[in-house]
Protein: DNA glycosylase
Amino acid sequence: MGDTPPVKDEPIDTSEVPGTITPTQKLREKLSAFKFSDDLSPTLRRSPRGHVRGRFAKFEEVDSELPTLPSAGPSLKKRSRTVEEHVKSEDFVAPVKKARASRSASPKKKQVAPPEKYAHLDPLSDHLGEGADMLDVMFCGINPGQMSATVGHHFAHPTNHFWRCLYRAGLTDRLLDASEDGSLPERFNLGITNLVERPSAQAAELANTEFTAGVPALMRKIVEKRPRIVCFVGKGIWDSFIRAAAPSSPSPQTPFEVPSFTESSSQSAPQVPSFGAVAESSQLLPPQSKKRPSVKKSKSAPIIYDVQPYKVVHNTPDAIVRETLFFVVVSTSGLVAGYQLPDKIKQFTLLKQRLDELKSGSFDTSAMVEIPSVMPSSS
Structure:
């Protein structure tokens, strides 16, 4: 009897059986929850915050098993301000303007040092020579600095330009040390004194009344020694001196003309000063006057670092020097940032030139204002 081949089981198509759910249908139903509909897709551009929240909020309603995302920040792509926009913004500019205004509105007050602060320092001795009529130039400083008072010599601070200016201008034949200040009268016919005797670290620590009180003593030295020129080393002490020495003296009837000074003028022949319109000498005016003219200052003319239009006449019968003139140079302190060493050397060179003109008799002083040589003693 022959073997009958086994009959293979055919797969049953359950899709035709009603009520039967196939695995494919289950997957489709599961994925239908993730289908995007028109309700979920925004038609208009909305803010990122509302768009993100609205989209995922509906997902939470459809299937609570799906994870929820945290709400987004204000803006996912916030543009950062550039440096220029930050500088121009009010929150940056306003504090800067306010700080500048506060600095300009409240200037630093002058801090006068009490006498006991530098009581351990001794005043400096004058070096004016023994007799009269021997000094070509009497230099008048502000007051002894702390370094100078400590070592006992004038202009002793290593950053001070005084001694270098003397040498470079030809007033001394070599560069002197501050310790040689006592040799100036006998060797070079130069003298040194100060308007204020009290030492201090800075001139700003002196009271204005101390400058005024020192004027009568300086005038007595001028009358006694009869120098050809008194050179004020600093504009401030000249202002104090002339206010006290000639408070009611009229201005020169004919303006005093200062010849223009250039770098080569010290090597040329002496120039004879004339009297007419005041010369415009940018070399002698303060450097700041060419860039930033002061707005709120006195109406007086800017200082010219040269011979001033005032003189003291000596009527003593035995006087050899009949007139003492006044010259102003900038302070030789190294703290004076507006004038560097070359600028100061130019002023000292002009001083040497004026001295040579005066000694040769080519300098006309007839239009200068005479200030009284006798002053009441300071109280």
Remarks:
- The chain has two domains: 22-75, 123-290+299-370.
- The first strand starts at residue 137 and ends at 141.
